[in-house]
Amino acid sequence: KAGVTQTPRYLIKTRGQQVTLSCSPISGHRSVSWYQQTPGQGLQFLFEYFSETQRNKGNFPGRFSGRQFSNSRSEMNVSTLELGDSALYLCASSLDGQTGELFFGEGSRLTVL
Amino acid sequence: GQQVMQIPQYQHVQEGEDFTTYCNSSTTLSNIQWYKQRPGGHPVFLIQLVKSGEVKKQKRLTFQFGEAKKNSSLHITATQTTDVGTYFCPGSGAQKLVFGQGTRLTINP
Fold first, then answer.
1. What secondary structure letter does DSSP report for A102?
2. Cβ contacts (< 8 Å) between A47 and chain B: which residues?
3. Bridge partners of residue A74, in order along the sequence
4. To pair with A43 at 20 to 30 A between CA atoms, which of A33, A51, A59, B8?
5. With contact defined as beta carbons under 8 Å apart, do A32 and A23 qualify?
6. CB B96 to CB A43 under 8 A?
7. Each residue of A75-86: pLDDT tens digit?
8. At residue B1, does pLDDT exceed 90?
9. Partners of B23 in the beta sheet?
10. Residue B27: pLDDT over 90
11. CB distance A101–B99 less than 8 Å?
């Protein structure tokens, strides 16, 4: 059974640009959550999608957005990048997103110059 | 909003010493999970606690959920270098898991 796949693994952008990150969950999992991880802030919840609907949202500005497709694959987008957006973005999938364990991908490491 | 505080934030021990990390929530949790993230890796699920006062063991690791379901602890007996990493205890409240900063454990061999 394939794990959670995130692409790209590494990317470098400059301030003002936008970026799209992709996450393919484990087959059969309908919930996809996104987290931002930085050394100073730990793991911060961005949003969670379930059956193509955003079910929960963290405290991030509107520049951070996401979506989920009918095959449960998810993308997140960050517009007008800022230096502080440099982080590891982790995607996690689960069966229903509420009671079971989360399976994390390897993450996408974003560097904003 | 729901917050999970974890202490200590950092812990350095000699190999063979015991280690404990604590999680405290501002609200009652429906369950709490524990994850381990090795350096350069991604968080990996360790265990889930659901019942008040629940205690679960995995070899040298002992997990406990408080009676009020607002706190939890992870105790590692006789640490080994393979225990190095950051331990997170996200608690489930309002239908989402809230991760704290975690406890980063380093070990002197």
1. -
2. none
3. A23, A68
4. A51
5. yes
6. no
7. 999 999 999 999
8. no
9. B6, B72
10. no
11. no
Beta strands per DSSP E along chain B: 4-7, 10-14, 19-25, 31-37, 44-49, 55-58, 61-65, 71-76, 85-88, 91-92, 97-98, 103-108
Q: Which residues of A touch B99 (CB under 8 A)?
A: 35, 42-45
Question: Is B48 at the interface with chain A, CB within 8 A?
Answer: yes
Q: Could A35 and B99 be called an inter-chain contact, meaning their C-beta atoms sit closer than 8 Å? A: yes
Instruction: Residue B62: name the closest of B31, B24, B18, B14 by CA.
Output: B18
DSSP B60-80: TEEEEE-TTSSEEEEEESS--
Give the pLDDT confidence score for residue A96 in this predicted structure: 79
Cross-strand partners of A81: none
Asked if B99's CB is within 8 angstroms of A42's CB, the reply is: yes
Tokens of A49: 């999608």
Chain B positions touching A107 (Cβ under 8 A) are 42
Task: Name the nearest CA neighbour of B103 among B39, B21, B25.
Answer: B21
- Are the beta carbons of B21 and B13 closer than 8 angstroms? no
Element (H, E) at A66: strand A64-68
Residue A85 sits at φ, ψ, to 5 deg, of -80, -5
How far, in Å, are A63, B34, B38, B70, B78 from residue B44 at the CA level?
A: 29, 9, 9, 22, 21
